[in-house]
């Protein structure tokens, strides 16, 4: 698919999510003057990053990972030499859940097809999941298994000949705030991602 076609299809997704009145998070978005957070970055990205759901900063700006977790992500990307603008960053759930609670099963089921389409359009080589929700959704969808604990699988590669991408589950950047050793794990895992990107060239 050409880049302009990709951009056109991603815009269609954006318009559908803006109008997603059936979402249980739609009235919360409207009442608070929030924006849905669709995703941002390179529409031809080799590296696709997928988090959980927007927090308050993200919902106020419409941009993924622009608050505290985003600051950590930016620092680590810089540390390992990955340009944020070369990646595509999104979340599994595109609207902010109230008080940053975990997304529900129904919310994930409603928003995940948009994530599926974003992956199909962008055609990344590597999908790095940030946190357990996106990891468990994608690992189940692509038949790698269910209900993983991230600390058992972080930095492991899930790949198969019939899949055009590899999945690598990572800790969520917010999980590093109170557990210092997790930050080191996340840096080491991002170094693996950087190596994979370089080897894929
Ligand atoms: N946490 C997420 O999972 N996604 C964001 O966009 C921000 C914080």
Question: Brief description of this entry?
Answer:
The protein is of the alpha/beta class and 201 residues long.
Keywords:
alpha/beta, 8 helices, globular, 5-stranded mixed sheet, binds uracil
Task: Write a structural description.
Helix content is about 45%, strand content about 10%. The chain contains eight helices and five strands; from the N terminus they run ααββααβαβααβα. A five-stranded mixed sheet has the order 1-3-2-4-5, with helices on both faces. The protein is an alpha/beta fold and about 200 residues long. Helix 1 (about 5-20) packs antiparallel against helix 5 and helix 4 packs across helix 8 (about 180-200). The protein has one domain (about 5-200): Uracil-DNA Glycosylase, subunit E. Uracil binds near residues 51, 53, 54 and 58.
Question: What is the radius of gyration computed over CA atoms, rounded to a whole number of angstroms?
Answer: 16 Å
| Shape, principal axes of CA atoms | globular
SSE order = HHEEHHEHEHHEH
* Approximate strand percentage: 5-15%
Q: Which whole number gives the mean pLDDT?
A: 97
Query: What CATH architecture do you see?
Result: 3-Layer(aba) Sandwich
